[in-house]
Write a structure and sequence with these properties.
This protein starts with 8 loop residues before the first strand and ends with a helix. With 687 residues, it is an alpha+beta fold. It has 16 helices and 37 strands. Helix 1 crosses helix 9, helix 10 packs across helix 11 and helix 12 crosses helix 13.
Length: 687
């Protein structure tokens, strides 16, 4: 593709709830622009943007996809994003590099939870927003109902620029409220007509409301309007574009992607009232201890931000980036301040779905890609040597669900660590951890579907097969009373034997006290050189597990007496004697199981607070309090046994329709209720 100057570039993210028709809209725009020759269908797995086998299998978008096209002298870098909650991180990454977010809303389902969540994200970025009401040709579609929902959820800035002509299967075009003209479509082509008689009154009323709303933003235009001078459509459009740039006006347009109604008009609006990179505020970057701003100047020093990494099994790692400043050309050398690597950008390209389109250069404001960067990952900055500035990285959603994975074969084991590392580079919303207490490798993500697809990619891209199991809870054991016991280790097998006797007293420590070993041997009952062996044997036994099979904590062990043999005693014999003594004392000291307790913060709409509180009570939660969040929602703070939260992400999403969110972190350990000991102890003996 040829290079475009920043003022002719439009970076547009299509965002919204799953099923609203974002991918079909991207397909329609590409077809309208002549970038593709036929209309692909999500159901058939033939769209440009859903090209991963996992996307085609499920009929949903999983990763963001870049789909640039040219329209009337402009380059539109379209970014199709997933609408499913598990892949919200991909949409957040797209918002970081887009200059306009187009919220695609189905006229059948209306405003849904992901619209609300992503609207808040765009709002926090001060990002310009437009709304495309899609699927007006479907049964039960209602533009009026959808518009009411948009105004209710997103405020008075929501401003319709079009009204639909016809309803459901008779939907055939749109009335332009700026020009008072009708655009009627047949086979994707429009004819310009007069406003139909049956909607003239409504159209004129909404037109007047729109004009009044636009001129208020321009004092000179308002004065003329009050004097009876009606501004031209071009003047209104220019003033409207300012409101869009400032994120105070959110235009609403409408159409039907699969019927190809008003798609060309959407492309026009993207270029006419959508902001270019030059219209957006300078980007803050960190330069040492200070913050400076960078503007999209093609003549300045090159600066790029990597917002997506793709692990391609054939080409290698692909890095997608936005050029924030300067002009990047093939074979440029740029510095990665995080890794310190000097990266050579061999061949530049842009992606249209999976198709690579070579580019001669990428000026400021444009989006492109490069292959095989050795030490660069998502969220990294690429800059020139001597100017090690850093762009703020993307803040990924915290993982809320975990599974344990283990390699199926030794061959899989050899490849597993590297494959997981590459998957995390591709999708930073995935977290891989090793739990040293339960000896499990944990794969954490945003939900069941997210984790399942990660496992499928692990097999497809890297040939690694794993088995999964439920995450084990890191229970522990302690004692609630003091006890004494003697451990005797005696073995005779020809030659030197083994002999060691140890008497110990164990006492409970306060929670978090760990382990203390006290040597109270007097009179040489145990030679000094063997005392450390006693301590080591006890520590090993505590780590292996107590009466119920879980590691023992918060215990003081006092070594009070013992016996030895001048020939047969050794470090091994006293180590074994210590183990035997501890096991016997532990059984007599009223042992209990300790369970981990998490501090949980759940944020839900106020009307769902009662349901969520009731569910928490069923999980043995101790509610610490509630408070009003900045969003008007309620945040519930509770202490909950960690074992009760293993599937909480799934249950909360179901109970709140996806509107609830939570954070949990380990807080402390507490004694497990006696009625649950038998069940949990069985888990300890089988783990």
């Amino acid at each position: 593709m040829k290079p475009f100057s920043p003022d002719r570039i439009r970076n547009v993210a299509l965002v919204g709830h799953g099923g609203a028709g974002k991918t079909s809209l991207a397909e329609a725009l590409l077809l309208e622009a002549g970038a593709i020759s036929r209309f692909g269908r999500v159901e058939d797995g033939t769209t440009v943007c859903d090209f991963d086998p996992e996307e085609q299998k499920r009929g949903i978008s999983i990763s963001l996809a870049l789909a640039p096209f040219e329209w009337k002298g402009h380059k539109v870098n379209l970014i199709d994003t997933p609408g499913y909650a598990d892949f919200e991180g991909e949409a957040l990454a797209a918002l970081r590099v887009a200059d306009l977010a187009v919220f695609v809303v189905s006229a059948v389902e209306g405003v849904e939870v992901q619209h609300e969540r992503l609207w808040k994200a765009a709002q926090s970025l001060g990002m310009p927003r437009m709304i495309f009401v899609n699927k007006l040709d479907r049964e039960r579609a209602s533009f009026e109902r959808t518009l009411d929902e948009l105004r209710d959820r997103f405020g008075a800035g929501v401003a319709p620029l079009e009204l639909p002509i016809g309803t459901e299967d008779s939907f055939r075009g749109v009335a332009d409220l700026l020009t008072d003209r009708a655009y009627v479509y047949d086979g994707g082509r429009a004819t310009v007509e007069e406003i139909p008689e049956d909607m003239e009154d409504l159209e004129h009323q909404v037109h007047d409301n729109l004009v009044e709303g636009i001129v208020v933003a321009d004092d000179a235009l308002l004065e003329r309007y009050l004097d009876g001078d009606v501004p031209s459509a071009e003047e209104l459009e220019r003033t409207l574009a300012v409101g869009v740039d400032e994120a105070t006006v959110f235009p609403v347009v409408c159409g039907a992607a699969t019927a190809r109604v008003a798609i060309d008009r959407l492309a026009d609006f993207l270029c006419e009232i959508g902001p270019s990179p030059l219209d957006r505020p300078p980007i803050p970057v960190q330069a040492g201890e200070s913050t400076v701003t960078v503007s999209p100047d093609p003549g300045a020093a090159p600066l790029a931000f990597v917002f997506k990494t793709v692990a391609d099994p054939y080409v290698g790692q692909l890095s997608l980036f936005k050029v924030l400043s300067g002009t990047i050309r093939p074979d440029d050398h740029l510095l990665n301040p995080r890794s310190g690597a000097d990266e050579r950008l061999h061949g530049l390209f842009t992606l249209r779905g999976r198709e690579h389109l070579d580019v001669a250069e990428l000026p400021a404001g444009d989006i492109g890609g490069v292959a095989k960067l050795s030490a660069t990952r998502t969220g990294d900055t690429l800059t020139t040597k001597g100017t090690p500035v850093v762009v703020e990285p993307i803040e990924w959603p915290e993982p809320v669900l975990a599974i344990a994975v283990r390699a199926r074969t030794q061959a899989d084991e050899d490849k597993l660590a590297n494959a997981l590392h590459r998957l995390v580079e591709e999708d930073p919303a995935i977290v891989v951890e090793r739990d040293d207490e339960t000896h499990q490798t944990l794969l954490k993500g945003s939900g069941e579907t997210h984790l399942q697809i990660t496992l499928e990619r692990l097999e497809r891209k890297f040939g690694v097969n794993v088995d999964t199991e439920e995450v084990r809870v890191a229970y522990r054991e302690t004692i609630t009373a003091s006890a004494e016991a003697e451990g005797k280790y005696k073995k005779q097998s020809g030659g030197h034997g083994q002999f060691g006797v140890v008497t110990i007293r164990i006492e409970p420590l306060e929670r978090g006290g760990g382990f203390e070993f006290v040597d109270q041997i007097v009179g040489g009952a145990i030679p000094r050189q063997f005392i450390p062996a006693v301590e080591k044997g006890i520590e090993e036994t505590m780590a292996e597990g107590g009466v119920h099979g879980f590691p023992v904590v918060d215990v003081r062990v006092v070594c009070i007496d013992g016996k030895y043999h001048s020939v047969d005693s050794s470090e091994m014999s006293f180590k074994m004697a210590g183990r035997l003594a501890f096991r016997e004392a532990m059984a007599k000291a009223s042992p209990v199981i300790l369970e981990p307790i998490s501090l949980l913060e759940v944020t839900v709409p106020s009307e769902l607070q009662g349901d969520v509180m009731g569910d928490l009570n069923s999980r043995r939660a101790r509610v610490q309090g509630t408070e009003m969040a900045d969003t008007g929602e309620q945040t519930i703070v509770a202490l909950v046994p960690t074992s009760e939260l293993r599937r909480y992400a799934i249950d909360l999403r179901s109970k709140t329709g996806g509107r609830g969110r939570f954070r949990a972190r380990h807080d402390h350990y507490d004694i497990l209720p006696p009625n649950l000991v038998a069940t949990v102890a069985a888990e300890g003996t089988t783990s």
